[in-house]
């Protein structure tokens, strides 16, 4: 009899545990949007941490053709996801997610990783020059003229390491330089629409050695957006998510739980 009672008690404990687990809300999907001169592989280190912690991930291939059109593409991806979403943008990708989040009730948080958080009417070029410190302009290669009109911009490969990813090993920076995705010149000069950070909570992280977007500009945008939490990584370049994936992943997780 005692054995039977003990077995029933154990079964009750197991059932209670299963019910508690079932009642836990599903973790939000993390949608990662890379910026100019980068690609989805720039999120690899962050993805490994988030996936280990049980988060579903979508690393979107940002077209880098124009703020409105790129935002429309990311918006379509968000629309296909039925769970809550945390939208994460790097660099120019910040401008994209600021617009893409609009109209989606399932977007619960925005995370800006060395990223633009523009006000309506602002451009990436304008925000880059708002404060001194960017050295991007002289490192750009001669524009590639597109047959359909407009131009594509790249960073000169021999200047990529120092400009974009100074704290990374040279071999890694060379690979990133060779595989960089171009952005259209018009995209960097396109005025942004109404920003979602005005009605969706935001989190910011950036390095204090960013040579693309001046840290002072990043701090200004974080404060203006009333950032829920702002992390400054000492010694980190523009690709803080590559060199320091741990703090970036932890900030994304904080945004996912609203802390």
Automatic annotation (TrEMBL):
Signal peptide residue numbers: 1-22
InterPro entries: AB_hydrolase_1, AB_hydrolase_fold, Sec-Metab_Biosynth_Hydrolase
Keyword field contains Membrane: no
Chain ranges of the AB hydrolase-1 domain: 30-250
Keywords in alphabetical order: Signal
SUPFAM superfamilies, sorted: alpha/beta-Hydrolases
Coiled-coil ranges from the UniProt annotation: none
Descriptive protein name: Pimeloyl-ACP methyl ester carboxylesterase
